[in-house]
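New to this. Please check both lines:
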Amino acid sequence: MTDTASRPTPSPERVLIFDTTLRDGEQCPGATMTFEEKLAVAEMLDGMGVDIIEAGFPIASNGDFEAVAEIARRTKRAVIAGLARAVPADIVRAGEAVRFAARGRIHTFVSTSPIHLAHQMRKSEDEVLEIIQKTVAQARDLVEDVEWSAMDATRTPIDYLCRCVEAAIRAGATTINLPDTVGYATPDEYRAMFRAVRERVPDADKAVFSVHCHNDLGLAIANSLAGIEGGARQVECTINGIGERAGNAALEEIVMALRTRADVLPYATGIDTTQIMRASKLVAAATHFPVQYNKAVVGRNAFAHESGIHQDGMLKNQSTYEIMTPESVGVQKTSLVMGKHSGRAAFRSKLEEMGYRLSDNQFQDAFERFKALADRKKNVYDEDIEALVDENLATAHDRIRLVSLTVIAGTRGPQRATMRLDIEGRLVTEEADGNGPVDAVFNAIHALVPHEAKLELYDVHAVTEGTDAQAEVSVRLRQAERSVTARGADPDTLVASAKAYLAALNKLLAGATRLHAQHAAAE
């Protein structure tokens, strides 16, 4: 048995973190973990400072028993809890599993609400009271640290709930959990329930009270915090909020709420918050449950900003739009996501970060092209911006510019391109057929700008991943003894092809102009 003095006892401001990712979290359909994955998650939880790890439900299967027992053997700091129904065999099995722990706990539970007693338990209130007394006493004979839970506490009449809690404490329970099993309560109700039970139950001060909230109405975090205000000093939660139905209260949200709003929630935890992101990714990988992008604290977008107004504020002072630093949860840095909502300040900062120094006119032209690209492309990557700016710089003095392009293509030829160019300020349009859409595009250019250059190279590759990736096209033209190569980039491969061909043609024209000027000067 574990020495009573070794049990974690919080100060009035200290809140214990009870993580049930390996038990309640794994009950989420499809979230089953392997033996090795459970060990890795338990090691992570212990290392980040979780006070109690509910390692599993030992009687559920031999695999669950072995996992709980092995976690109990390996864990260095945390109390290891095994769950047990209010059934003698369950309690024996849980006791066998956690006996290997330096600090073990049996967590036993029974339903208390009228709807559960009538339809699931099929027991009277008095019969359930007797079950509580016997099973809690049985657990206490095996370990010093016993937690008792009133399943569906928030739908249990307060008078009967107080009788059950009193019976559990009298039988030896050291932690009393009053869960919102079906996510039904509101914060005011949950806070009031804890206050009422703690005021009315004799010897309530001898037990630590615990919250365990499900998220069926999206109130798990609010209810958990309300329960703490009502006197609870243990929070039961899971990494990423995984759990049955809509999930449990998320550990990362509870911990960071207490840390960030210590001015109104003066409670502390022992969690090393810089390990939160690592834990989130480990659990997501083990359960194959991806974290939603806009998930609080650990979502991919939690520290990402795309809105121009937000990005401008972030560049001036991070606290304008971030109430906690990304480093505090183990994220390397804030991400200014470049997209259609980004403003000039963020775009200029991104260019400087990438090593570009543009004049005002060059910047304005590049920014307009960037906004046009962002309207067409969901994700704008650094490589997209690089291709866009390089093309912008290369074509700044072009005599021929693409205005518009429409291509008709498919299995029933011929393919046809309709092109509009700006040639030294003069707008011209032409249609041309071809043996394929690229050939039609190049034929249209040849019709609008007659020349003798021969195509020596045509190469296409994607700048970034995805079906909306920018295509970068390289074209090499040779005219007489001169050979020039140019690139064009665009999410539309045909537009990129036209840009690349025109860029090469502009280089040939610019070279011819310089050669003509040199001959004129010599004369």
Residues 1-5, 513-523 have pLDDT under 50 and may be disordered. The chain has three domains: 12-268, 304-392, 396-522. The two ends are 107 Å apart (CA to CA). The first strand starts at residue 16 and ends at 19.
